[in-house]
Amino acid sequence: MPSPQPRTAVLCGTGSHLPPRRVDNDELSRVLDTSDEWIRSRTGIGARHWADPGTTTSDLAAAAGARAVADAGVSEVDAVVVATTTPDRPCPATAPVVAGKLGLTGVAAFDVAAVCTGFIYGLATATGLIAAGAARRVLLIGAETYSSILDPADRTTSVIFGDGAGAVVLRAGEPGEPGAVGPFDLGSDGDGVDLITVRGGGAEQRLSGREPEPGDRYFAMAGKSVFWQAVRNMSKSARAVLDQAGWRVDEVDHLVGHQANLRILNRLADDIGIPRERSITNIAEVGNTSAASIPLALDQARAAGRLRAGDRVLLTAFGGGLTWGSTTLTWPEQATTRTEERT
Predict the structure, then answer these.
(1) Is 44 within 8 Å of 261 (Cβ atoms)?
(2) Cβ of 38: how many Cβ atoms within 10 Å?
(3) Region (ACP-binding) spans which residues (predicted)?
């Protein structure tokens, strides 16, 4: 009796959502010691979107998720996975709230916390659920409201991060078919925990016997150290999955890296050996949206007609933890283009 075909995750729908408030560099320059030229030259960012008061991460996630589910042409999924650094509450997870807002009560729902690598970790998790037979369809969402944890007086972080959500629907399929998610390379280094962090609010601080410092409730990042860690680990991870997939570097049609900083993305492409023009970027208009950045970039590139059926796509990310991860994807026919507004 022949052995059954292995199951894997196949991309069958995408969606994204940005909050309507657009904050350009000139607006920030009026309250911070900075300028449009300073921000663009160091980050490649011209604007970002920030959520209005009363808007939650689950609101953004549900909007992006609804678009992805509609795009996939399905009414049900078996699991909702939300990758986020900015959950609605420390407890419970945000995913059950999102599932409820989408009318998906009763399905498995949980969060993945890997900061900017969250979407890649989420892809690996969703693929595992499908491969194990625990789910036939999974809605995976990367969603962030970083504006809620930024120090408004810190120009090194406030100019970089934005809010938004991106989502994909994954279905059970065969490894060789278009849309199938490829092999994964995942890694971490806890020695770098202090390079990207929010120090206050967790059990470590609460059980320390001391009151948090004023800055402990805000996001903090050691920019220079993170730059080189990001380039080195994403480049190494990307090469590892290319080897596993059997792809040559010159066969990659698009590189979609975590949208951390345009200089990082350019250096990453150079290190891997992929021409910069093959790198998909949206950081100029949305900034660094952490776990949402890769699915946002994919959905916007698809809407612009840049992703075509059969294109070989390399995904890679780096984030707090430290964490990193990569995978490959051949773009499917059913998720090629769309003409309606994506925000």
Answers:
(1) yes
(2) 15
(3) 259-263
CB 199 within 8 A of CB 212: yes
- Cα 319 to chain center, whole Å? 10
Contacts of residue 312, defined as CB under 8 A and 6 or more positions apart, other chains included, come to: 247, 251, 252, 253, 254, 328, 329, 330, 331
Q: Each residue of 223-241: pLDDT tens digit?
A: 889 999 999 999 999 999 9
Torsion of CA 59, 62, 67, 71, to 10 degrees: 170
pLDDT tens profile 239-298: 999 999 999 999 999 999 999 999 999 999 999 999 999 999 999 999 999 999 999 999
- Mapping DSSP to helix (H, G, I), strand (E, B) and coil, where does residue 111 land? strand
Q: Which of 6, 77, 14 is nearest to 256 (CA)?
A: 14
| The pairing of beta strand 163-173 with beta strand 79-83 | unpaired
Residue with tokens 């009763």: 106
What's the chain's average pLDDT? Answer: 94
CA nearest to 149, candidates 222, 114, 111, 199: 199
- Catalytic residue numbers read 116, 258, 288
**pLDDT value of position 299:** 98
Structure tokens at 52: 């209005």
Bond prior to 186 in cis (omega within 30° of 0): no
* Helix (H), strand (E) at residue 47: strand 47-49
Pick the more confident residue, 338 or 188: 188
- Interatomic CA distance for residues 295 and 9, integer angstroms: 15
Domain ranges for the chain, please list them. Answer: 8-173, 181-335
Which one is the CATH code of 8-173: 3.40.47.10, 3.40.190.10, 3.40.640.10, 3.30.565.10? 3.40.47.10
- For domain 181-335, the CATH superfamily is Thiolase/Chalcone synthase (3.40.47.10)
Give 14's strand partners: 168
Q: What is the pTM for the complete model shown?
A: 0.94
